């Protein structure tokens, strides 16, 4: 029997939405409760953990002072907030996020509504399970208090006073059009949080910098649509140099504004490491940047050790002075010998999307994962799990001792620095 999802609709539900019936047809059993007065809202929020999703009209959000009401229950509320607006409203998804909303929808856009409801209901389930993980972190002796991790949200974009909107889109391109879009300033950077998964580590606000391309209509094109063409044309070095320069400026602004623990992970292509001039330019920029030690982690593919060893050696020299880090991705779970051989120069390794999928469908072994993590930790290398998009992975990653997680279940990439941070709490309770 499927668990009924509880949706709180703050504002009488518009008849045309038909949320319950439409979601039920998609296999989600939901129960919708309406609240349109301060008294009915206060009654609904008496048990915050009851709700799996909150829908709210933009006007009702202000009239009922919903931000303050939800803030009072933040420690027990796992449900996402979705705001509805009229087509004429100027409320953007970024502004809504700053208000605490997971998304902003135009009233009447049924397809978008159903997609967001499905996504956020899954996200709520993941947050509930992550909250529950603190029980498995407890020692056998319930009197032995130990710090554990709970998920929270911090909007770091206030340091930059930036505004952004995001519309994912993918289509076929050719090199000439990609070049034209880049020349017209179409490159866009987004940032996806990398969230610490262990309470015993010093917290840093970590993000991977991701490049996108905006087309003539303002739609955002994902890397798979244009980076292969960029690489084929031999432009990756210049693109990586541009990304590094922009990221260094952003990071300096963040750290000078008070967020000294902000860390950016930056990808460097093998093609970039084969260019001595580009590497020298990147090294000069990093050396001149006024950053806290360890603020930059360069991500490279495993193949760079074979295809560009001289460039890798030069990169390591650039990192050493400011004690910045090196991450290797595309490793397999049986690459224990690789970690043992190169552990002295690594600070991080990242587990691939394929490994995450394998853990879910049984193609990857939990034993192999734990052996891999132990080998990395023995070399003082931290392990990050990529593409953590579902709650079913949480117990496996937690048991293996993964250091940090990255994926859409906590946050999709944003042009602003939206960080699902951690809160370390003390607990000796085995149940809520």
Overview of this protein structure:
- The protein has helices at 19-25, 38-44, 58-63, 66-71, 93-98, 110-136, 175-183, 223-232, 236-256, 270-273, 276-288, 304-307, 309-320, 336-342, 353-361, 366-378, 394-400; strands at 5-10, 30-35, 53-57, 80-85, 103-106, 146-151, 154-155, 168-169, 187-196, 205-214, 220-221, 262-267, 296-301, 325-331, 348-351, 382-385, 404-405, 418-419, 422-427.
- With 432 residues, the protein is an alpha/beta fold.
- The strands form four sheets. An eight-stranded mixed barrel has the order 9-10-12-13-14-15-16-17, surrounded by five helices. It has a five-stranded parallel β-sheet with strand order 2-1-3-4-5.
- The chain is globular and about 65 Å long.
- The protein starts with a strand and ends in a 5-residue tail after the last strand.
- The model is unreliable at 133-155, 157-171 and 421-432 (pLDDT under 50).
- Residues 171-427 form the EAL domain.
- InterPro entries: Cyclic-di-GMP_PDE-like, EAL_dom, EAL_sf.
- GO terms for molecular function: cyclic-guanylate-specific phosphodiesterase activity.
- This is EAL domain-containing protein.
Walk me through the topology.
Blueprint: E1 5-10, H1 19-25, E2 30-35, H2 38-44, E3 53-57, H3 58-63, H4 66-71, E4 80-85, H5 93-98, E5 103-106, H6 110-136, E6 146-151, E7 154-155, E8 168-169, H7 175-183, E9 187-196, E10 205-214, E11 220-221, H8 223-232, H9 236-256, E12 262-267, H10 270-273, H11 276-288, E13 296-301, H12 304-307, H13 309-320, E14 325-331, H14 336-342, E15 348-351, H15 353-361, H16 366-378, E16 382-385, H17 394-400, E17 404-405, E18 418-419, E19 422-427
Parallel strand pairs: 1-2, 1-3, 3-4, 4-5, 8-11, 10-12, 12-13, 13-14, 14-15, 15-16, 16-17
Antiparallel strand pairs: 6-19, 7-18, 9-10, 9-17, 10-11
């Amino acid at each position: 029997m499927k668990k009924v999802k509880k949706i709180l609709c703050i504002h009488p539900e518009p008849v045309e939405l038909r949320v319950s019936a439409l979601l039920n047809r998609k296999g989600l059993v939901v129960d919708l409760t309406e609240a349109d007065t301060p008294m009915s809202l206060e009654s609904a929020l008496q048990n915050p953990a009851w709700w799996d999703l909150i829908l709210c009209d933009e006007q009702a959000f202000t009239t009922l002072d919903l931000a303050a009401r939800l803030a009072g229950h933040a420690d027990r509320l796992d449900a996402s907030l979705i705001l509805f607006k009229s087509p004429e409203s100027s409320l953007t998804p970024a502004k809504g996020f700053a208000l605490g909303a997971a998304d902003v929808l135009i009233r009447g856009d049924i397809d978008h509504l159903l997609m967001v409801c499905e996504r956020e209901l899954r996200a709520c389930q993941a947050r509930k399970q992550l909250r529950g993980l603190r029980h498995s972190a407890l020692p056998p002796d319930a009197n032995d208090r130990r710090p554990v991790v709970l998920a929270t949200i911090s909007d770091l974009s206030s340091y930059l006073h930036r505004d952004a909107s995001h519309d994912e889109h993918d289509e076929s391109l050719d090199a000439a059009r990609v070049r034209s879009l880049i020349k017209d300033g179409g490159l866009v950077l987004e940032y996806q949080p990398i969230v610490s998964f262990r309470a015993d580590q010093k917290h840093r606000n970590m993000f991977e910098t991701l490049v996108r391309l905006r087309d003539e209509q303002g739609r955002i094109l994902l890397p798979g649509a244009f980076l292969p063409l960029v690489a084929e044309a031999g432009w990756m070095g210049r693109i990586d140099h541009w990304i590094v320069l922009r990221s260094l400026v952003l990071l300096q602004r963040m750290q000078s504004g008070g967020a000294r623990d902000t860390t950016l992970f930056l990808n460097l292509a093998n093609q970039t490491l084969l260019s001595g001039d580009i590497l020298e330019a990147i090294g000069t920029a990093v050396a001149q940047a006024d950053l806290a030690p360890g603020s930059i982690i360069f991500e490279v593919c495993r193949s760079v050790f074979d295809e560009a060893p001289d460039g890798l050696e030069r990169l390591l020299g650039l990192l050493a002075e400011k004690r910045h880090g090196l991450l290797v991705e595309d490793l397999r779970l049986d690459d224990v010998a690789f970690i043992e051989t190169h552990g002295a120069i690594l600070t991080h390794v990242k587990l691939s999307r394929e490994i995450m999928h394998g853990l879910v469908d049984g193609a990857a072994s939990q034993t192999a994962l734990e052996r891999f993590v132990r080998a990395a930790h023995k070399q003082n290398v931290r392990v990050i799990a990529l593409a953590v998009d579902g709650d079913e992975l949480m117990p496996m990653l937690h048991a293996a001792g993964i250091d940090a997680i990255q994926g859409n279940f906590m946050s999709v990439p944003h042009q602003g620095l939206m960080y699902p941070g951690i809160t370390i709490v003390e607990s000796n309770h085995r149940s809520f």
